[in-house]
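Batch job 17 of 40 flagged for manual review because the log was empty.
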Amino acid sequence: MTEFGIDVARGYWRKIIASTPIFLSINHEANAYTVSQIAADAPAPLMEKERYPYGVRKGYAQEVFRFPQNRAPTAGSS
């Protein structure tokens, strides 16, 4: 996502926060912007985020975004 132009990335982010309960991002930190910056500019309601260095490749970060509002209802809930 961070290889796209900023406007395209923002469009992807809007689609992600509207359609999935969880999103994993593993991206290089040296690009023009990070997924964290996109998320900070347009946060989702109730968004939860975890961010760690990605141990497999130096200079990369692993981020997990959770969007509870997109979770499917469980059996017995309404």
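Reviewer: the log was empty due to a logging misconfiguration, but the result itself is present. Helices lie at 6-19, 35-41. Unflagging and moving on to job 18.
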